[in-house]
Amino acid sequence: MGDIQNPRSRDDLREKELPIGHSVIASAASSKRFSTPISTSIHRNYINPILCALLTSYAFIFHAFPCINRWTTSSTNAGSISATVPKFKEDTAYGWKDDIWPIREQTRWDISTDFQYPRKLVYDVEEGTWLRLDVGPNGDIVFDMLGDMYCIPADVITSSATSAVQALAILQGVPYDSHPQISPDGTRLAFRSDAGLGVANIWVKPWSGCRAASNQVKGDDLWILSDLDGDPESGENREKNHRREVREGRADAIKITNETFRWVSEARWHPDGDKIIATKRYTSSRAVPAGEGWLYNVPNATLSTSPLISGEGLRLVGRSLPLGWQPEQYGEQQIGPEEFIWWGDDRLIYSKNVIDINGRFEYGKDVHKGINTIFSYNVTSGVAETLVDANPGGASRPEISNDGRTIAFVRRVRDKEALVLKDLKTGTIRNIWYGLTYDLSIVSAPMGTYPSFSFTPKDDAIIIWATGSLWKVPLSLDDAGERISGGEPWKIKWKARIEKRLAKTRISQTDIAKEEAKPRQRIRAFTELSVDATGERVTFRAGSKTYWQALDHSANPVVVDPLSSGDEVSQEAIPLPVLHPNATYQSPSFIPNEPNLLIHMRWSDTLFSSIEIADISRNIAFEVDGLPLGRYDKPTICDSVGLNRRIAFVRKAGDKMTGDIVATANPGLYVGLLTLPSPFGRGQGTKLMVRDVKRLSQHIPSGRMRFTEGARNLIVYDDSTSSVIDLTASPNDVGEHPSRVLAKGKMSTEMAVTLPRESDSLHGAKTRLAAATVGHAAFVDLHQVYVANGLDFGGGDVLWSKPGPNATRGLARASVEGGHDLSWSADGKRLCWLLGPYLHSLEVSKLDECKREIQQDSNSFGIKCVKTLLNVQEISVTFEHERSRIKRAASDAFVAQHSPVADQETRDDHFDSDMLFILNATVVSMITGTEHRDVLYGRTLVIRGGVIIGSYATDDENDWLRIPPGAPRGKFIDAQGGIVVPGFVDVHAHWNGQGSVASSWEQRTFLAYGLTTVHNPAIDTVAAWTERARVESGSMIGPRIFHTGTIIHGGTWKGDHEDIVDMAEARSALTRLKVEGMTTVEHTIPIPVVYQDVLTLFAESGTGNTPTHIVNLGGVFGEIHVWAHTAVPFDQKQDRLRKFVPHALLETISSSLAVPRDAYQVFNTSASIHQMTKMGLNANIGAHGEPPLGMNYHKEMWFFAQGGMTPYEALRSATRHGASSLGLFGSIGSLEPGKLADMVIYPAGMNILEDISLTLQIRYVIKGGRVWDAETMIEEWPEKGKVQSMPPLSAD
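and the corresponding structure tokens:
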């Protein structure tokens, strides 16, 4: 083992500060001896899925975006591969350049020291999960387990051992270390690690055997628990950090790759020992990492201060382009080669998915037909050949014998996983052992389709992981010199001590019962913003209604929260006058040159769209007629003078939410003529007529529209472009009017422009004004708002916020936490946008005050200065909450039931008319979480105002319980002995209609199947808040909606990617999402069967898990099993589906595949989940929103029971566990006093405690005290007979 430099000599190296991504290292005289490196800087874009979720409460953030590193980087330059190895042929990837990501380089961060891990978990295991291993030249076995590395000395490995030998820890700590590989001469160990910034790179350390590398230091004195005190570069802290590295076994390791966005794993040594081949992983718009084979030099003995550049190395084997793809699409290819090994000096062997040939990874493929093929590749000629075909059973995880004659690989054979040998000389293939765990070629498996294994030094055995253990598979030679099975495989008995530092498990406790006790609730997000001509007023949509509000131009505008201050709601935004107060309104905008008139759309589930004009000075509204039945949106009026105007709007064809059955023809962009109401004439309800309507284009813009130059031009906004349509020009042969692009963004998700004005020219730039196509362009790039002056870019320039030469000249960042719904005042002087309950505005002429800072800040484009120019004011919109509405409705029902001439005493009694009694119930309370204490027979549940008062036995001496049914107070339901359980919680629900104005059949279906709370872990933030407001305000029925908002994502999809490079940006992202915090692992880990190491860590971590068997990642999806065993569109038992779900969606799941039961890894997953719940894990039910909605939630409960759970335990996961994981158990999840009255009532005789498959047979569903008949979703109480309207969704 090489000498370790003392801290002082390491400090000397630090005196030369290098830019991020650069590194230095001093090395001893021998190439086999390495001196101590300094901590490295890398970028976290991928974290092992087990530890990511279990070791830190902010795991979802770490997985999603790069963090920060406070350490100067240190490692030896990998050098120019192409210069040192000219004989190897580079794969040029069709000329594609990986020059976009990361958008900005990361600041310094060390995952070991810059985050706190206050908990320590220590336990012993004798089995492990997915152990990747290598065998050294002396026979030592080194393997990874849970992100640490262990070694078993060769001299203790024996088949006759009666007790387990101790595996020695050689690498521990917070970083995730894996994929160990010992060099051919046995002097160095290569491995994958995310030490430093948190992105996987390849590291190398000296190696001289297990015992020398063991870091088993007694005591805790050397373990650094959390962030260092004060300056991380201080001598004391560097000494602490060095001691930590020594304790963890990484003080003598160096980094030989320096990826800061992509990541690298599975290094394999070249026979000469001076370079490695590794799999470099690329994410695309999906977070499915495609592989490529890259060559990297391993540092020699010379002192190097050359920078280790991110992305350096030589691509030897790249991805292939699917048929018809262009080179610029290369980055979207989700399939690539992986699992590289060397075959001699100039050939590679690798595995590749050959089934997904269209560039997109697909789940649920047939493993029996085969998915992966093994290839050989000559790195000098560039010629590839097939070594082992995918059919049958696939062929992956190739390993080669030391003499180069035999490759071993794994494949599926019937219901077994086989270890297979192929003689490379004769071509003979033999299955030598059927005892392996199933491979993971069916999923995207960056952890490996199977754990790496190894031949022993003499090639007389293979050491391999299977079924939680390490096995030695003996080999021998036949007469032809081919390797064959040498006897019965035997288990290597070992044990290991696992030490893990855990972060605090974050679960915010939200008292929604307290929130719902308030008489009025606030809407927290707004959309569809529009500004008037002068920037003095704005209009917007809040939930189902439209509002207007004046801008406050004071220095620090403040709107007091009327709910907290007690002030009157007169301070709120003002609703637009409308003709139908209970309807849904959208797309409001001011009418130019008529300051008191606004135009907006009204939606009806039965009559579809109508246009209304609102006069806010007289508080009256006008109907606009003359359009056929259809779905209209985005109305805008031209900026001419007078009452006769042009109007533009779009007509949509229909969709899955508004229906695609009726009035679907002729979608597009239209214009017509409209005479506006006179401010002195027509009164409320007067009809106005649209006439002379014609279609301009079949294109439907995603954003707003507005006229310019009177009615000569129409500007339309899309996600990444702003265009202008010339209305004076003649249309072409297909009726399209000519248009031209005004501005285009490279990665923008919103775009809005102004036209040039002479006042836009600054500092004598008038000579450029004539050439400018726009005055200013505002756009949203990676969630942030940017502004560019039209003088600084041409019509052919692409707007982009990536720092460096590609950034738009003079670009200014306008938002701190982000923004959406960009809108300019008509005069082009003021830009407005929304974020949460706040309205932001910027007078663009003031940007000149920050011109110097904008020019000098090439990274954040002057935001520190620009933010001082912003005007931010709070918007307040409230609505009457459900509990108040229930009380009022119950009171109204009572008064209607009794004669108006009833005596005063009777009339006064309606104060308790909001009481609900459920009699003769078998209550499964879920209060304790134990069946024998939670199941209560012969109970009466009492509810008042949507809150549970109590659960009482029939013999309780409570006078008010003796009121017989029919008495003039409250509502009585006789459960007839039927079971009552808390309302179900879907912790992982997806749906598609959050942006629709129609009443949601999705939310109604959820509710019909007993789901009173749903949580969506990936959904557009604004759309989700808007839909939630519609449900809570009573505009439509549905469960309680919770969500994460737009996901924090590290992939390259422009709509989701978070460009987070420091803690300020991290806080900005969380502020934008208004995250309350929860810690769960969503979906299961891809490995269906887990063992002691993972079982214990998972259960003890405090996290929850929602395994989503319906879309299980370890094999064929569970939904295939559902479809195969339930004729969904035809089954009369599922008639409820046809009442609530569009029939076309049901028809798409009419048929399914016949799949062997062993292909359904969901049953192994459910068994693992059951084991962990017995150890304390909160296991949640989540059906992923897979069709058919509602029914699949109950099938998910059925899958839980297949792993060994009792029906009660499955129901506990559906109620108590889900509420606890979401931090809502204080208000829902059990039937106890003070909690919200969310519950499901089953008919008598449906004993779901004995047969979990009966949970579909619901009688009543109750949310917050409101009762529906689950079969029809007709309201039972308090508004009996009320039915939610729906658009026509089915043709039959």
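(Above: one complete record from the training split.) Residues 882-897 form the longest helix (16 residues).
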